[in-house]
Amino acid sequence: MNCPKCKIQIPHEKINIKTDVGHCTSCDHLFKISEHLDQVLDNFDIHTTPKGTWHSEERDVTIIGASTRSPIALFLVPFMLIWSGGSLGGIYGFQIIEGEFNLLISLFGIPFILGSIFFWGIAFMAIWGKVEARLDRQGGSIFTGIGSIGRTKKFSWQEVSSIHEKHRRANTTNTYASYIALEGKRRITFGTGLNESRRFYLLKSFQSIHGKVKSNKHFIR
């Protein structure tokens, strides 16, 4: 979008949807993004894909997606190798070596198995994960996962009244997780694992396509 004051184009990294603040480095002007949403959509180009996102078209279907790849994998993978390897190896490894089964110790290890599955899932998403949507005039589907393994959410445009970025408290601290929500007859959420620029691209793509469907325009350009 362009600065409301000097009209110079503002980089995506200076547009913070979470805090509703835009900052123009040319004239040092701060403004509320919510007061200029029409301009954000008017200047949005679905073909201009930030790093880690993509766009393609197949007949009457528009495909947009973003990678969930994150530097957090550099920490998670070594941590999980030590944590799950040590805990599970200690609990079950000696039973395999000794050829003896201990029910009590095996039951004690179940929380470690579940924890390993959960955190390895996060680690793998941080390496190979993606969020990809296939959209047509009727609605579409949103896939979150790795390769062909994951979860798909389907929806129709008729049941969507608005599309916004939402924030929820991630834990007892003051940190928040951001995601995209399709609001309407039911709420569909996705994009929690995306960084800000990738989530912003998907958000604006959905808002742009939704607006064109509502105004009875063909959204594939």
Key phrases:
alpha+beta, PH-domain like, 3 domains, three-stranded antiparallel sheet
Task: Give a structural overview.
This protein is of the alpha+beta class and 221 residues long. It folds into three domains: 1-43, no CATH class; 44-69 and 129-214, PH-domain like (Roll), CATH 2.30.29; 73-126, no CATH class. The protein is 34% helix and 30% strand. The protein is built from five helices and eleven strands, in the order E-E-E-H-E-E-H-H-H-E-E-E-E-E-E-H. It has helices spanning 37-42, 73-98, 103-108, 110-128, 196-214, and strands at 15-16, 21-24, 29-32, 53-58, 61-67, 130-135, 139-146, 149-156, 160-169, 176-184, 188-190. The protein has a five-stranded antiparallel sheet. A three-stranded antiparallel sheet has the order 1-2-3, with no helix packed on it. Helix 2 (73-98) runs antiparallel to helix 4. The longest helix has 26 residues, at 73-98. It is elongated. 19% of the residues are buried. The model has no long low-confidence stretch (mean pLDDT 84).
Overall pLDDT:
84
Show unreliable segments.
Answer: none
Structural class: alpha+beta
CATH topology of the largest domain: PH-domain like
Residue fraction in strands:
25-35%
In spatial order, strands of the major sheet run 4-5-6-7-8
Q: Give the class-level CATH name of the largest domain.
A: Mainly Beta
Residue share in helix: 25-40%
